[in-house]
Amino acid sequence: MVKPIYIVLGAIPVIAALLLSTPLLLRNEIPTSAANHTDNIEIEYTKHQLKKISYGVTERTGAQKTEILYIKNDGEIKYSVTENGYLKPDVRSQLDEAKLNKIKALIKETGFIAIPSESFAIMDNATEYQKSNVKITLNGRVNQIHWPQQNVTMDFIPPIITMVESELDLIISEFSE
């Protein structure tokens, strides 16, 4: 028969481990501690609003609107928009350090830089859709991924890609208002 004192002594490390790990497991956000100030990152994010135009026998896909967000390592932002073939003046701004660290941590912690560059097939019946592209350079390693919105492809787009897309779309929304 096991003495009750051994059960109590064995339960203490288990309870301590649960108390320490529960907040980490229930947290929705990526911890910004993954971002290191020595990390060198550059992000180029492009969104195209595409439309297929049929000319009878042939068809062409053209961009109605293209948005380009370029983020440098120091937080400098350049935002460009081309709409209906006309380039609007560039907007330059500075990203605060907290947001930059959040994006760095998201990319490092999720292994985004290791995602293979694969192409996602567009369904034939898609006429208007958004296609995105992100090129990330992290400490000399480069990864570039192209993907359409989920409802125009039968392929599964990994949640890591949509998480990065959401963060970058939040930054773009500050300029497009």
Notable traits:
single chain, 177 residues, 3 helices, alpha+beta, Mago nashi protein, 7-stranded antiparallel sheet, 2 domains, 7 strands
Write the layout of secondary structure elements.
Blueprint: H1 4-26, E1 41-54, E2 59-71, E3 76-83, E4 86-87, E5 91-94, H2 97-110, E6 128-138, E7 141-148, H3 159-176
Antiparallel strand pairs: 1-2, 1-6, 2-3, 3-4, 3-5, 6-7
What would a concise description of this structure say?
The chain contains three helices and seven strands. The protein has 177 residues and is an alpha+beta fold.
Q: How many angstroms does the end-to-end distance come to?
A: 71 Å
Q: Count of DSSP E strands?
A: 7
Question: Based on the structure given, which CATH architecture of the largest domain is correct?
Answer: 2-Layer Sandwich
Quick check: average pLDDT? 83
The SSE order reads: HEEEEEHEEH
Structure write-up:
The chain is an alpha+beta fold. The chain folds into two domains: 4-33; 34-176, Mago nashi (Mago nashi protein, 2-Layer Sandwich). It has helices spanning 4-26, 97-110, 159-176, and strands at 41-54, 59-71, 76-83, 86-87, 91-94, 128-138, 141-148. Strands 1, 2, 3, 4, 5, 6 and 7 form a seven-stranded antiparallel beta sheet that branches. Helix 2 runs antiparallel to helix 3 (159-176). The longest helix has 23 residues, at 4-26. The model has no long low-confidence stretch (mean pLDDT 83).
